[in-house]
Amino acid sequence: MSRPEDFYVAWEYLSTHPAFFLYEGDDWGFDGHLDILVMRDDETGDVRIELEHGPWAPPTPDTPGISHGSPSHDLRLDSGAPTFEEAVMQMAEKVRRYYPDTTLPVGAYFDY
User: Fold this and answer.
1) C-alpha triplet 89, 85, 17: angle, nearest 5°
2) In this structure, how many other beta carbons lie within 10 angstroms of the beta carbon of residue 25?
3) Which candidate among 19, 37, 90, 104 keeps its CA 20 to 30 Å from the CA of 82?
4) Over the stretch 8-36, which tens digit does the pLDDT of each residue have?
5) Helical H runs in 22-106?
6) pLDDT class for 112, splitting at 50, 70, 90?
7) Distance (Å, whole) CA 112 – CA 109
């Protein structure tokens, strides 16, 4: 089991990461469109927590600039684990992998 401090650090990282803000002053943020799914395997009884971020707004020829990251649903960030805390920490690792530069200004991940 992970330490509570690890979960807190992951939550703060996600809550302040610029990839989750569309433009300056946007209050969407990480938890603004966080979907939490609780699933149970009927055969094993195992419970799994699935996390998705962003509305289902797949990229189209008219919106090529939101093909990855918020405000679209970036499938690369979907995470799942036996506990909510572990799923959040997994998502934080994926954000670190796909959106590593937190020195960029808010909105820099999008092609307007």
Assistant:
1) 40
2) 7
3) 19
4) 899 988 888 877 765 445 556 777 778 89
5) 84-98
6) very low
7) 9
> What DSSP character marks residue 105?
P
> CB–CB of 82/69 below 8 Å?
no
Tokens in use for 18? Answer: 């610029």
Identify the bridge partners of residue 34 per DSSP, sorted by sequence position: 53
Write down the pLDDT at residue 101.
66
pLDDT at 41: 92
Decide if 50 contacts 99 (C-beta within 8 A).
no
45 token code pair: 């009884």
Rg value, the chain, Cα: 15
Backbone angles phi, psi at 20, to 5 degrees: -95, 10
79 forms beta bridges with: 51
Which residue bears the tokens 């530069």?
101
